[in-house]
Amino acid sequence: MRYADLRNFGLTEEQRAVREAARKFTEKEILPVINDYEDKGQYPSDLIKKIGELGYLGAIISEEYGGVGMDFVSYASICEEIGYGCWVVSSAINMCNSLVGSGLQRHGSETQKRQYLAAIARGEKLPSACYTEPNHGSDLSGIETTAKRDGDSYIINGSKIWISHANHADFFYVLATINRELKHRGVSIFLVDRETAGLQTRPFPLHCLKRGDSGEVVFEDCRIPKENLVGEEGKGFKVVATQLDIGRLCVAARCVGMAQYCVDLSIKYARERVQFGQEIGEFQAIKHKIADMVTQVEAARLMVLRLANVMDTGVRASMEAAMTKLFASESSVSVALDAIQIHGGMGFGQEYPVGRILMELKTLCVGEGTSEIMRNLIGDYSIGYKGY
Q1: Are residue 168 and residue 261 in the same domain, yes or no?
Q2: Residues 36, 72 share a domain
Q3: Number of domains present in the structure of the chain
Q4: Which one of 94, 134, 160, 332 is CB 3.0 to 4.6 Å from 259, fit for a cystine?
Q5: pLDDT of residue 385
Q6: Which pLDDT belongs to residue 211?
Q7: Residue 188, H or E segment
């Protein structure tokens, strides 16, 4: 089934071709091997290299810097279709485009764009965004990692946690403060190469995503040139703000893809599993679960398409991004829970991936802004506590 005929929603021939190409890649390259990667706890470096060759790591990076320069509708399609197959690979797309690439493209110096942005787009360098800390997740204005000016350098000290792709990244996009008393006005963004003295990474074990690369990044007197400051001192929040809406679009699209996989697996299982002399799909209870699952996925997909279309007009879409991310992440968890119920005890076995997908989807209710933060933003924008 995969998804409804989207021609009725204004997709161009080119946009449908982008979606179809990503879909075929997932079916051919990812789905046949991804369970093996998870069982072995193996990071899918070769799959990430392949999507780099396809241009997906530079999907929304401009052609001037080696990217593809896609519109957001096409970008969302890639995130969904690759997300259908693998959380980690689709996370790499998000990291390169949304969390790092978009900020560098808008706020980076020409030298930074040539040195880092072009390398991302060509799949030569994998970045990792370092925001979250042991004591600070949602409250980025209170971060404790410091960057102190010392002549023509900055010296960075601190630690970051829950950092995706930490142990395989070639450089780090680091949120640090130049003055903690200034709170958000002291936050800045810095580029730190892996070989920088004093930088260490170590894995952070998770219950799920064994093939993932979540880790801790520690900075001990890491000296970097002043040219590695992205944008202006104390303007890091402004840089991050340009990235979050795009990141939430990608996360929501990934949730749709993963939830769609749960639907497809459940339909297949409902046609194969026989109880009391009939396929379990013939029981009304199962039909109703599948009906609810399909409806939630389609609703989330339409919200993603609407958000992408708004973003393609150049209009600010922070409220729409928060709503879409909230609904897509929470509804996808609901879909995965129903998928497990349909599979019964088999839903917890390694042979069927729905249990693993549930855990992976739950991480996306936290990453890129928790559901609680999304509700705060939506409420603030709706009531008028925040300018829009």
Answers
A1: no
A2: yes
A3: 3
A4: 332
A5: 80
A6: 75
A7: strand 187-193
Extract the tokens encoding 284.
């009304």
What pairing do the DSSP bridges indicate for beta strands 215-225 and 229-230? unpaired
Domain stop point among 62, 94, 126: 126
* 1 lies in some domain: no
pLDDT for the residue numbered 1: 43
Domain stop point among 126, 142, 173: 126
Residue 388 domain flag: no
Q: Which two tokens stand for residue 79?
A: 């995130």
Residue 324 CB partners (closer than 8 Å, separation 6+): 248, 249, 252, 300, 303, 304, 306, 307
pTM of the model: 0.94
Outline where DSSP puts E strands in 194-237.
199-203, 215-225, 229-230
Give 301's contacts (C-beta < 8 A, 6+ positions apart). Answer: 3, 4, 80, 256
216 and 138 fall within a common domain: yes
Which residues span the domain enclosing 277?
237-383
pLDDT of amino acid 6 = 55
Length of the chain: 388
User: Which regions of the chain are under pLDDT 50?
Assistant: 1, 388
Catalytic (active-site) positions: 368
Q: Which residues, 6 or more positions from 238, have their beta carbon under 8 angstroms from its beta carbon? A: 107, 231
Q: What is the torsional sign of CA 19, 25, 30, 31?
A: positive
- For residue 180, what pLDDT is reported? 78
Residues 175 and 243 in one domain: no
Looking at the structure, do residues 64 and 84 belong to the same domain, yes or no?
yes
Whether residue 292 is found in the same domain as residue 315 = yes
| Residue bearing tokens 């990792």 | 128
Question: Residue 5: what pLDDT?
Answer: 54
User: Within the chain, where are the H helices?
Assistant: 13-25, 34-40, 45-53, 72-85, 87-94, 102-107, 110-112, 118-121, 236-272, 284-312, 318-343, 354-363, 371-383
Residue 39 and residue 221: Cα distance in Å, rounded?
A: 38
